[in-house]
């Protein structure tokens, strides 16, 4: 397809690119210039000309496109060569803080203690268990390093052991397209089964007969998981039975099993509706039936405890509430009984039902609260958290028959910790805190939570951290400002050991909890989506202005960073307020909004009409066009910019940033740096493995530090 488009070369256009093969030491000093082939698109009587549409190649095999990407990579390497020593130092710092021989906190289930661990310089986890006691011999049942050995890219998806503990099912992706292959291993003999299930989402759910698994098959074009299959161990995939097919392409499909292992469910999830269909795990050949009706505007999820379903729902409850209902009456919402009623100022996030306690996770005014309710006495107790900005969320709690809760805690100054609390006495034990090797003391750092008044009067939470002895509130420090701002995703203020490399060099780190996320509840999300999307961009800009006005940072040393939908944010603020930023890091950026959302063949497009809008509708088309970063590129000065992507990205196709960079190069009026790096082996998540990813982060940090004269 691309070859045919490229053959429509128009007289007068630039000749072919500087390719990777013909770039010499002289030509590498100049950025690759992409040719233009005007491609006309018309919607609602409005015409757009895309000079770089030819860059789209779904096969990722077009030689001209690959050569251009390689040329861009060589240009980055050449231009950043003088920072190589700094990059090496940063990489060594970041990886040197990581404990090489490390392990997760073991948890007990079905007679075994289960855990993962890392060894030495290995990139991937080892999965192991010990029978009955942690003093017993270790049984390594999966070593991801062995599986990854022959692959440039490797991702382990689902890892699931049958209920009798004897058979392992696991899924792998070696192309970074999120198309996983499921395989099976006999844990008694170590032998592999012949069964191989291809083109799956990676999720695996065992029925209680230890012979039946459920999995999701993907459309290889759109990459939507839309078919749920039942597979019997020892049979070929073509014999598998289709048990559910999602024909509404605005829905995602997931599968799972309740904590008590009694119910298998299919989860149906779109932007405006969510719910589940269920069967008993004892009867895998049964037909899935809806737990409750799935209707537009109603979202629910659930867990099972004895004869009750506990359901988190937004039915007449914008910020969600918790109800319970007898399993036999779940489809009748009039029988639902309030357990945690709706509260306008509290966002109800999650819950766990134990035999004797109900534990709920809530967010109020941007801070998380974990509340414990004794089911016998109805006494309520909130766990104490003292940091200004933190994250507290449930860890692994595999059974209801326990009076102990495990939760994960971290803050901008506190390394991640797994804490166990006795729900009767509230005595707590830190089972593990991530160890930061080298020269580190949490008391050297200070975190803050402030609120910035946006242009429409809304108060935007901002989490800040800096090193005390490097910071002066006099407007001289460089600022690294990060945000996401889409899908209702809350980016929590967690600790990052790699971030210390910024803080120790005097940077202030700011996490802007802008609209489009859900830090302040459901309304905060709705105020940053669809026809309110512009609030996401203006919130970020207003936070930048406030932080410099309040002397947290120097006006000429501000750096902005975001990835994926956060890359859309970067493109937006670069068009709207380029003068505020010395540098921008845009990673796997979703920047060609209108064109992508107009093409239902592109992965994820149809699922997201209720997030961005459907350009088939004139009002959505016009609003999306008003902020689409690619369409709004204009002749003006732009900040120094580093753009990164992965050739095999299944979420944001490589050609979006590729086109965007080409258009920026053509139209920008400044001499600032514009670098574009493509990982030719990776996808949306970047390089695989626990160490390799820090190469990419070291490049970004060095890019920013170089701009403010930091060279070591």
Task: Categorize the overall geometry.
Answer: globular
Helix content: 10-25%
Strand content: 25-35%
Number of strands: 39
Distance between the termini: 47 Å
Number of helices: 13
Order of strands side by side in the largest beta sheet? 32-33-35-34-36-37-38-39
Secondary-structure-based class equals: alpha+beta
Instruction: Give the biggest beta sheet.
Output: 8 strands, mixed
Report Rg. Answer: 26 Å
List low-pLDDT spans: 1-27
On the 0-100 scale, what is the average pLDDT?
Answer: 93
Write the layout of secondary structure elements.
Layout: H1 2-6, E1 39-43, E2 46-50, H2 63-79, H3 84-96, E3 102-103, E4 107-109, E5 112-118, E6 126-131, E7 139-143, H4 144-148, E8 155-161, E9 167-173, E10 180-186, E11 192-200, E12 205-206, E13 212-218, E14 225-232, E15 241-245, E16 252-257, E17 263-269, E18 274-280, E19 289-290, E20 300-305, E21 308-313, E22 321-326, E23 337-340, E24 346-353, E25 357-364, E26 367-374, E27 380-382, E28 390-394, E29 404-411, E30 417-422, E31 428-433, E32 445-453, E33 459-467, E34 479-482, H5 500-503, E35 508-512, H6 522-526, H7 534-549, E36 558-563, H8 565-576, E37 583-587, H9 593-597, H10 609-612, H11 618-627, E38 640-646, H12 655-667, E39 674-679, H13 693-707
Parallel strand pairs: 34-35, 34-36, 36-37, 37-38, 38-39
Antiparallel strand pairs: 1-2, 3-5, 4-5, 5-6, 6-7, 8-9, 9-10, 10-11, 12-13, 13-14, 14-15, 16-17, 17-18, 18-19, 20-21, 21-22, 22-23, 24-25, 25-26, 26-27, 28-29, 29-30, 30-31, 32-33, 33-35
Write up this protein.
The structure is a single chain. The protein is built from 13 helices and 39 strands. The chain is an alpha+beta fold. Helix content is 17%, strand content 33%. The protein is globular.
């Amino acid at each position: 397809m691309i070859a045919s488009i490229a053959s429509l070369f128009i007289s007068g256009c630039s000749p072919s690119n500087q390719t990777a093969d013909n770039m010499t030491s002289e030509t590498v000093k100049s950025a690759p210039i992409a040719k233009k082939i005007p491609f006309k698109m018309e919607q609602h009587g409005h015409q757009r000309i895309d000079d770089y549409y030819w860059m789209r190649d779904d096969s990722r095999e077009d030689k001209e496109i690959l050569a251009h990407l390689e040329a861009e990579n060589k240009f980055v390497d050449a231009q950043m060569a003088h920072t190589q020593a700094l990059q090496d130092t940063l990489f060594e710092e970041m990886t040197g803080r990581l404990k090489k021989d490390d392990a997760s906190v073991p948890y007990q289930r079905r007679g075994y203690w289960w855990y993962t661990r890392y060894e030495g310089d290995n990139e991937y986890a080892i999965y192991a268990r010990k029978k009955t006691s942690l003093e017993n011999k270790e049984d390594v049942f999966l070593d991801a390093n062995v599986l990854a050995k022959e692959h440039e890219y490797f991702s382990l998806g689902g890892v699931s052991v049958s209920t009798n503990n004897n058979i392992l099912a696991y899924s792998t992706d070696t192309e970074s397209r999120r198309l996983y292959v499921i395989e099976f291993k006999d844990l008694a003999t170590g032998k592999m089964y012949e069964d191989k299930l291809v083109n799956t989402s990676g999720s695996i759910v065992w029925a209680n007969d230890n012979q039946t698994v459920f999995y999701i098959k993907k459309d290889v074009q759109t990459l939507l998981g839309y078919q749920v299959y039942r597979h019997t161990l020892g049979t070929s995939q073509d014999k598998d039975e289709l048990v559910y097919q999602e024909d509404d392409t605005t829905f995602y499909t997931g599968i799972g099993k309740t904590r008590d292992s009694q119910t298998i469910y299919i989860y149906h999830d779109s932007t405006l509706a969510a719910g589940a269909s269920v069967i008993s795990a004892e009867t895998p050949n049964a037909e899935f039936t809806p737990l409750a009706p799935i209707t537009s505007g109603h979202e629910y999820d659930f867990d099972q405890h004895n004869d009750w379903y506990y359901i988190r729902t937004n039915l007449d409850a914008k910020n969600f509430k918790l109800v319970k209902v007898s399993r036999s009456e779940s489809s009748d919402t009039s029988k639902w009984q309030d357990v945690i009623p709706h509260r306008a100022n509290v966002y109800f996030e999650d819950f766990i039902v134990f035999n004797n306690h109900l534990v709920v996770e809530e967010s109020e005014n941007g801070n998380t609260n974990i509340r414990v309710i004794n089911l016998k006495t109805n006494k309520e107790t909130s766990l104490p958290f003292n940091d200004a900005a933190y994250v507290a969320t449930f860890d692994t709690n595999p059974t209801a028959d326990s009076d102990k809760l495990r939760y994960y805690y971290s803050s901008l100054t506190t390394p991640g910790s797994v804490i166990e609390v006795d729900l009767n006495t509230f005595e707590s034990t830190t089972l593990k805190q991530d160890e930061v090797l080298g020269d580190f003391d949490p008391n050297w750092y200070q975190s803050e939570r402030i609120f910035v008044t946006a242009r429409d009067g809304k108060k935007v939470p901002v989490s800040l951290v800096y090193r005390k002895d490097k910071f002066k509130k006099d407007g001289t420090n460089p600022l690294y400002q990060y945000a996401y701002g889409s899908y209702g995703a809350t980016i929590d203020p967690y600790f990052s050991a790699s971030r210390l490399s910024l803080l120790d060099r005097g940077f202030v780190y700011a996490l802007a909890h802008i609209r489009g996320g859900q830090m302040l509840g459901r309304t905060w999300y709705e105020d940053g989506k669809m026809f309110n999307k512009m609030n996401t961009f203006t919130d970020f800009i207003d936070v930048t202005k406030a932080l410099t006005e309040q002397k947290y940072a120097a006006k000429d040393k501000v750096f902005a960073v975001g990835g994926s939908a956060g890359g859309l944010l970067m493109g937006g603020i670069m068009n709207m307020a380029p003068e505020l930023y010395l540098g921008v890091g845009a990673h796997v950026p979703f920047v060609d909004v209108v064109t992508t959302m107009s093409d239902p063949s592109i992965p994820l497009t149809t699922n997201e009409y209720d997030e961005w809008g459907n350009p088939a509708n004139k009002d959505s088309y016009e609003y999306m066009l008003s902020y689409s970063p690619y369409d709004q590129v204009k002749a003006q000065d732009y900040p120094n910019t580093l753009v990164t992507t992965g050739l095999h990205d299944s979420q944001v196709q490589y050609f979006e940033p590729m086109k965007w960079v080409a258009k920026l190069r053509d139209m920008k009026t400044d001499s600032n740096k514009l670098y574009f790096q493509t990982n030719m082996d990776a996808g949306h998540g970047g390089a695989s493995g626990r160490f390799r990813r820090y190469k990419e982060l070291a490049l970004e940090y060095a890019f920013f530090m170089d701009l403010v004269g930091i060279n070591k």
